[in-house]
Amino acid sequence: MNAAAAKSRPRYEARARIAKALAHPSRLLMLDALQKREHCVCELTALVGADQSTVSKHLAILKQAGIVVDRKEGPLTFYRIKVCCLADFWRCIETVLKENLRTQQAAFGG
């Protein structure tokens, strides 16, 4: 590995940690809801259809990655998006999905 590649490796590892945090359908569903407004864990539990401990683990992963932040209000914990760039990320993903669909349709004569 050359010096330039070695120097940039930590950046790619950091990117991979964030991508890994996003790589779960339940976390993506929660992030979509959190883009609209903050939610307590109980609301996200109902949305995802999983138990509270599972949802809390997902939220901890997102928080550790720096994507969400939390705040306590009495016994409840509320989460909100920490970064404002997710809308661009979703648009990019949707563009890739549409392009993949076009490629598949062309391959099958659709």
Overview of this protein structure:
The protein is an alpha+beta fold. The chain has a domain at 12-82: Arc Repressor Mutant, subunit A, CATH 1.10.10.10. It contains five helices and three strands; from the N terminus they run ααβααββα. A three-stranded antiparallel beta sheet has the order 1-3-2. β2 and β3 form a beta hairpin. The N and C termini lie far apart (45 Å). The mean pLDDT is 93.
Cα-atom Rg, whole angstroms?
A: 18 Å
Q: What proportion of the residues is helical, as a percent range?
A: 55-70%
Largest sheet: 3 strands, antiparallel
CATH superfamily of the domain at 12-82: Winged helix-like DNA-binding domain superfamily/Winged helix DNA-binding domain
- Helices and strands, in order, run as HHEHHEEH
**Form type:** flat
Give the strand content: 5-15%
Number of discrete helical segments: 5
Return residue spans where pLDDT drops below 50 for at least 5 consecutive residues: none
Structural class by sheet pairing and helices: alpha+beta
The CATH architecture of the domain at 12-82 would be Orthogonal Bundle
Number of strands: 3
Separation of termini?
Answer: 45 Å
- Let me know the average pLDDT: 93
Q: Strand order within the widest sheet?
A: 1-3-2
CATH level 3 topology of the domain at 12-82? Arc Repressor Mutant, subunit A
